[in-house]
Design a protein that fits this description.
By secondary structure, the protein is mainly alpha-helical. The chain is 65% helix and 7% strand. The chain has a two-stranded parallel ribbon with strand order 1-2. The protein has a two-stranded antiparallel sheet with strand order 3-4.
Length: 178
């Protein structure tokens, strides 16, 4: 008889990290598909695909795509569900590809190979950050990961409130509009 085993969070810290990861995933969908605005499908946009890397992308777009996927990589590595480093990178690549495909299908943005590359790079940075944190904090890794996840969640909350209330993000003297 085959028994299906579930991997459940082992502690309150793991459950908190999982909850913040789910909240981040909701934010990620909103940021990638609806550019931090009100959800729409089709919206009069034409469906476009850019298969030439680094063709017509602004520096801001490149940085945004990296930055928005760093937490994805961190949460993925912190989830502790047995994926190797390579499988975590492949998961990041597949999730990014899924976002690009959904944008094309729903006509809610331009599907771009550069986005795929930058999202994956951001995920790799997040995964590497988690592994560096693990080495640095050793047996206190889960507590340190929780602190980082709380900081990421606060940043995500600030970004969401800023975009909802003001339609833009204020960072120091910079104003960012999507």
């Amino acid at each position: 008889m085959n028994k299906i085993t579930e991997t459940k969070p082992q502690s309150g810290i793991d459950r908190a990290i999982l909850g913040m990861g789910v909240a981040y995933a909701v934010f990620l969908v909103w940021a990638i598909l609806w550019k931090c605005g009100m959800p729409f499908v089709g919206g009069g946009s034409e469906r476009a695909v850019n298969l030439l890397p680094f063709n017509g992308n602004t520096r801001w777009e490149l940085e945004f795509n990296i930055a928005v996927f760093v937490p994805f990589g961190f949460y993925l590595a912190a989830a502790k569900h047995g994926l190797t480093f390579i499988k975590q990178i492949l998961t990041t690549l597949l999730v990014s590809f899924a976002f690009e495909a959904i944008q094309l299908i729903l006509a809610v943005g331009r599907s771009d190979v550069t986005d795929l590359l930058m999202n994956t790079l951001g995920g790799i940075v997040g995964i590497a950050a988690f592994y560096a944190l693990s080495k640095l904090f050793g047996k206190h890794e889960r507590k340190a990961a929780l602190v980082i996840c709380i900081l990421l969640s606060l940043l995500e909350l600030y970004m969401a409130v800023s975009f909802i209330m003001f339609g833009q993000l204020y960072i120091g003297g910079m104003i960012i509009r999507l």
